[in-house]
Amino acid sequence: MVIKHQVVGYEQFVEHMKQYTKKDLVYVYYCGSKLPSGESWCIDCVRAWPVIEPKLSLADESAHFVYVECGDRAFWKDMKCPFRKDPSTKLMVLPTLVKWKQPEKLEGDQCEKPDLVEMLFSDD
């Protein structure tokens, strides 16, 4: 089964990602931070997660899956948000699911489409 990680905030994200090399297969899921209820403030992220989570079983068992909480609504909406400015992320919308250092990317409601999520995880 894929190796799961969870990071909160930009600084923790940057530090966590330093451990991976180009040879590592890493998927990154960017979403809004969780509220006390345990769900993200981002309703699109709430809808996407039940589609993404079961499809993780399709990923190579040596792959890493990094769940990134990108901050609260105000932090994310700020156009100077470091997730938006970082050339390695280039985030425009939440949720976003990417294959790290690869061109494969699903954004927004694409993350709610089981066939697209399946293709991303099973495409080697």
TrEMBL record:
It comes from Nicrophorus vespilloides. This is Thioredoxin domain-containing protein 17. Residues 7-123 form the Thioredoxin domain. It comes from the Eukaryota. Belongs to the thioredoxin family. InterPro entries: Thioredoxin-like_sf, TXNDC17-like, TXNDC17_dom.
